[in-house]
């Protein structure tokens, strides 16, 4: 994107681009060579489609969205139940979508919309399937793939080549390690690693970068250790531990958020700690 104060006022459309006359274009839009923009598309102010970008369906790109070459947005979902219903795709302001990303629109059986929040970064070759919902500030690294109906909370980080099963929930501020296969939900601020994802702690680095005070981080660490004790005896069930943690640490907003997430309805269950060496180490403080 050009620097603020240097944004073009006039819309520029390359002669080789195919823009349907019914499409809605904001101020200062740039549409590069060989792009295709369908009739039901709405582009906000200063949207940039660099080259060979295809945007179809009932799709909205808010102000300042930037899309790099060979990306497709708003095309039909890879779902055999889809019967060309007028479902939607929405990308929030200032989100950057890099090369060769595919973002499919929603389904009538789902929410009807695929939604990506503001200020996200979707890196090259990622796939965002139908009915997925990504919160603001999410980063999706190269080659990440996700099934339909995945929900990713604000500020979460999904590292390279991770695969997210359909209906999985990733909590706010969580981090998913590279090459993870995530089959179950990841708690807010959780950190998962492994070929089949296992919880290895909280996202301490992310919490520090977000400016969370050391005292709160320490309280979160104590709450996490009570939720997931290292002892393997299984003397209490998770629901009982949640109740204990709520009594002791429920006044801490981020802990309360974790507990609400854990008690919310889920199609997939919760990712639990593994017994590998990563879990045996002390948490990073």
UniProtKB/TrEMBL annotation:
Q: What class of enzyme is it?
A: transferase
One Gene Ontology term of the molecular function aspect: acyl-[acyl-carrier-protein]-UDP-N-acetylglucosamine O-acyltransferase activity
Reported EC number(s) for this entry are 2.3.1.129
- Domain UDP N-acetylglucosamine O-acyltransferase C-terminal, by residue range, is 185-270
Any matching Pfam family: Acetyltransf_11
Q: Which domain of life is it from?
A: Bacteria
Q: Which PROSITE patterns match?
A: HEXAPEP_TRANSFERASES (PS00101)
**Keywords in UniProt for this one?**
Acyltransferase, Cytoplasm, Lipid A biosynthesis, Lipid biosynthesis, Lipid metabolism, Repeat, Transferase
- Record's keyword annotation contains DNA-binding: no
NCBIfam families according to UniProt? lipid_A_lpxA, PRK05289.1
Q: What is this protein called?
A: Acyl-ACP--UDP-N-acetylglucosamine O-acyltransferase
Q: Look up and give the organism this protein is from.
A: Bombella saccharophila
